[in-house]
């Protein structure tokens, strides 16, 4: 069997009717190389049907077309296409005849072409996809993940989940590696073959071999089960993500054996209320980030290097786990998590039968849920990073005794398919009790005058607005007897109780259900100091997943600072673009809240200086539960000396002492207003500002900010100097405005232009600015706080040259090499070590 890329030589166009085609009214197809997002390049507008949820992008229906040259000798072969993801309602046609569909925009699926092909001829493949008011965030549209072509003998290993690997018994002397290989006979003759499996250790040495015969009747499947004993196993863990490879050969069918390479990890998972989650016998607390599937300025298009970069940067920011919100994760990101030791909670759906958007997946759920669960588990099964399956997110049915039985079906289906991981559900008590929510609000309002409850739960802007409207409203609701009763059955069917914004229940769950394991599946970023203490103080609470780790398109402005005189609506008005609720912006730059979180986690002892923007000094503002202040780590501001500024210094020390240009100007306790923060107000003075952390009067760390001076220079850095030519390859070009001493010029933004020549092309160009009407498909884009990011896609072998220019600044040219792909087919050409080094360079 051969599995080859099927991402080149496609074209796409807006979908029209067959009558328009006949009348010549349809547009010609635009050449494109997959993966591709058909929406990200369209014009946003304030009246777009997607509204704030979809970042004011338009909806659309699109068709993708390519041709497949099918030689005569394939008439005795099995041919299939593997789609990693098509958003959404995919319809597949061969030579004009419909052959398959897939409503779910995130499910991987395989389509057999047998019986539809014309041999010895060119065959036309068409894929239709569409999106329209069907999600609560930006989805993109089209064939946004990779496509692969499978060509094999009629007797072959199944394409999807054909090799399943578990490690049921592990100790320091030996690990049992159990391999189940599914062989299908799509022919008309009974055939006998041999399945040969070798286990390669992380260094490539063969450490176990087994051969097993299998006879299959026509049009049947058979499973070969092998147990291979690996001596002295290297355990996969967050700190040491050791990966083994199973090399499977199907011999005796064709002249050349079919070969499959499957990576896996050897590790144990345990769960109990006394130790929490244990991996290889050691307790692990999940420092989690919720993330959406889009790649920021690239839209929904999924590239291996973009997924890898996200995982590396998230782990560098202190996270050791991610929750895929609210859909199954891409293969490329799962691979990256395996390589870099990041734990995964993979999620099935954002809705079951009760719609959250007028045309969402709920319309297809009753018929398709089982196949979509099977697809997710098939994708995840061999990935050691996956430790938890989530069967949903904020599902209204979880509070209804009859409707909640869907959750039981989902949970049992997952366990049937994979009994090696744990099952959770991101349950929001507020959503679960939605049918009685008016009663809750009335009770809360009445209690405010008698028992100190919330003053009001009324707010505009939907469920999210109500949830974030007051500090104590969600706590009151989460712990109310109404929610406890409504969620009892849904909680009981889970291995781990997942609580969205339910941290107030942690102690209640410990008292009333001491055997229960709990995880904060979604939490307010503004509460990480209190939440993390709850996690560390309660052994049965295994972790916290903040909303969110990486900024995303859609649900715009939920984390913005609302200044007096601006709209106080829950969502940001056009041209707001991103959520702005995350630790990292859409380009991967860490915001101050990320350094605060890292300090709370106990992973950072160096103080961090964040300065609120002086231009907003004195303006009244409000912060929502997903918000952080508008602080920036800079001492370069276009304000006169003496202008008042407010500083936030994050530290785990006792006190912070400030020095300005060599003299001590202030000293404050850490935690007076908020844990891990020392607050200062002082007049601005250009120069060097130093924060010194003191514990018991002794210095334990310091950090300095300097004012940029002189002419601006372009600081241009490539994430790597070379790459192989492969579908997921990208170069990331970080561009910053700095002075001659390397100080960032954050308060003098300007347009920057990028010109790419040679063996690559500009794939996307943009900044982390959350409110902008600028596009990502142009060669000029404005900086935000002195930064902008360009993404270059290799097109062929050779030299890529990138010229960066801006008004009043000397041009900068950087170059990178694109090489022929490595000859090792089962090893990714980017290893954890060289990719990390290139990011940090």
From TrEMBL:
One Pfam family here: Glyco_hydro_2
Keyword annotations from UniProtKB, A to Z: Glycosidase, Hydrolase
Family in the record: Belongs to the glycosyl hydrolase 2 family.
A single GO molecular function term of this UniProt record: hydrolase activity, hydrolyzing O-glycosyl compounds
Key word Hydrolase present: yes
Gene3D superfamilies: Galactose-binding domain-like, Glycosidases, Immunoglobulins
Sequence ranges assigned to domain Glycoside hydrolase family in this UniProt record: 715-811
Domain Glycoside hydrolase family 2 catalytic: residue ranges: 277-437
InterPro entries the UniProt entry points to: Beta-gal/glucu_dom_sf (IPR036156), DUF4982 (IPR032311), Galactose-bd-like_sf (IPR008979), GH (IPR017853), GH2_Domain-Containing (IPR051913), Glyco_hydro2_dom5 (IPR040605), Glyco_hydro_2 (IPR006101), Glyco_hydro_2_cat (IPR006103)
Species assigned in the record: Glutamicibacter mishrai
BP GO terms, sorted: carbohydrate metabolic process
Protein name (database record): Glycoside hydrolase family 2 protein
Domain DUF4982: 642-700
Domain of life (superkingdom): Bacteria
Occurrences of domain Glycoside hydrolase family 2 immunoglobulin-like beta-sandwich (ranges): 163-267
């Amino acid at each position: 069997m051969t599995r080859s890329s099927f991402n080149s030589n496609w074209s796409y166009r807006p979908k029209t009717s067959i009558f328009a085609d006949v009348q010549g009214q349809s547009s010609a197809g635009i050449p494109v190389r997959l993966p591709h997002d058909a929406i990200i390049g369209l014009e946003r507008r304030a009246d777009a049907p997607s509204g704030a949820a979809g970042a004011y992008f338009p909806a659309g229906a699109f068709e993708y077309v390519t041709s497949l040259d099918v030689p005569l000798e394939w008439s005795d072969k099995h041919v299939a296409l593997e789609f990693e993801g098509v958003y959404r309602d995919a319809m597949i046609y061969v030579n004009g005849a419909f052959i398959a569909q897939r409503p779910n925009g995130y499910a991987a699926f395989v389509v057999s072409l047998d019986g539809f092909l014309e041999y010895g001829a060119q065959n036309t493949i068409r894929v239709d996809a569409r999106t329209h008011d069907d999600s609560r965030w930006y989805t993109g549209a089209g064939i946004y993940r990779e496509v692969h072509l499978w060509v094999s003998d009629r007797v072959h290993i199944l394409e999807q989940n054909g090799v399943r690997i578990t490690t049921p018994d592990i100790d320091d002397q030996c690990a049992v590696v159990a391999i189940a290989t599914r062989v299908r006979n799509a022919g008309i003759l009974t055939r006998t073959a041999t399945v040969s499996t070798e286990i390669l250790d992380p260094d490539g040495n063969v450490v176990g071999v087994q051969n097993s015969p299998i006879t299959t009747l026509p049009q049947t499947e058979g499973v070969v089960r092998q147990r291979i004993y690996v001596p002295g196993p290297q355990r996969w863990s967050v700190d040491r993500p050791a990966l083994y490879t199973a090399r499977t050969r199907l011999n005796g069918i064709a002249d050349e054996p079919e070969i499959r390479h499957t990576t896996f990890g050897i590790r144990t998972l345990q769960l109990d209320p006394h130790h929490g989650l244990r991996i290889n016998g050691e307790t692990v607390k999940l420092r989690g980030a919720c993330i959406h599937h889009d790649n920021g300025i690239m839209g929904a298009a999924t590239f291996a290097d973009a997924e890898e970069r996200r995982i590396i940067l998230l782990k560098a920011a202190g996270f050791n786990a991610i929750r895929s919100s609210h859909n199954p994760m891409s293969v490329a990101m799962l691979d990256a998590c395996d390589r870099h030791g990041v734990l995964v909670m993979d999620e099935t759906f954002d809705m079951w039968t009760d719609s959250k958007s007028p045309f969402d997946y709920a319309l297809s759920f009753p018929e398709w849920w089982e196949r979509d669960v099977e697809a997710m588990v098939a994708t995840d099964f061999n990935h050691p990073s996956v430790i938890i399956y989530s069967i949903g997110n904020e599902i209204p049915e979880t509070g209804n005794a009859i409707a909640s039985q869907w959750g039981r079906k989902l949970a049992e289906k997952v366990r049937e398919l994979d009994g090696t991981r744990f099952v959770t559900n991101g349950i929001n008590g507020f959503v679960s009790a939605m049918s009685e929510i008016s009663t809750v609000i009335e009770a809360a309002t009445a209690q405010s005058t008698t028992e100190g409850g919330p003053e009001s739960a009324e707010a505009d802007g939907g469920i999210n607005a109500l949830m974030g409207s007051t500090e104590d409203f969600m706590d009151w609701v989460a712990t109310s007897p109404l929610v406890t009763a409504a969620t009892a059955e849904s909680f009981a069917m889970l291995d781990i109780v997942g609580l969205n914004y339910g941290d107030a229940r942690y102690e209640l769950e410990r008292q009333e259900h001491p055997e229960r394991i709990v995880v904060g599946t979604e939490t307010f970023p503004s509460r990480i100091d209190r939440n993390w203490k709850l996690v560390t103080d309660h052994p049965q609470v295994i972790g916290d997943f903040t909303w969110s780790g990486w900024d995303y398109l859609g649900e715009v402005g939920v984390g913005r600072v609302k200044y007096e005189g601006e709209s106080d609506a829950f969502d940001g008005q056009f041209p707001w673009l991103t959520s702005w609720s995350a630790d990292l912006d859409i380009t991967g730059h860490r915001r101050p809240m990320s350094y605060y979180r890292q300090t709370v986690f106990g992973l950072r002892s160096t103080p961090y200086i964040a300065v609120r923007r002086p231009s907003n000094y004195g303006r009244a503002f409000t912060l929502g539960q997903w918000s952080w202040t508008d602080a920036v780590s800079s001492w370069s501001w276009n304000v006169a000396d003496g202008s008042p500024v407010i500083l936030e210094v994050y530290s785990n020390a006792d006190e912070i002492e400030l020095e300005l240009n060599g003299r001590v100007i202030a000293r404050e306790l850490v935690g007076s207003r908020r844990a891990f923060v020392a607050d200062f107000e002082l007049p601005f003075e250009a120069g060097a500002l130093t924060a010194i952390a003191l514990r018991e009067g002794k210095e334990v760390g310091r950090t300095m900010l300097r004012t940029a001076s002189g002419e601006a220079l372009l600081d241009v850095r490539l994430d790597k100097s070379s790459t192989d030519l492969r579908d997921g390859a990208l170069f990331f070009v970080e561009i910053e405005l700095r002075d001659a001493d390397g100080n960032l010029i954050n308060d003098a933004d300007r347009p920057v232009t990028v010109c790419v020549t040679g063996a690559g092309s500009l794939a996307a160009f943009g900044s982390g600015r959350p409110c902008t009407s600028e596009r990502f498909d142009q060669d000029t884009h404005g900086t935000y706080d002195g930064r902008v990011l360009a993404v270059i896609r290799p097109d062929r072998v050779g030299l890529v040259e990138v010229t960066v220019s801006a008004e009043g600044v000397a041009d900068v040219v950087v170059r990178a090499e694109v090489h022929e792909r490595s000859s090792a087919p089962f090893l990714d050409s980017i290893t954890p070590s060289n990719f990390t080094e290139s990011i940090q360079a």
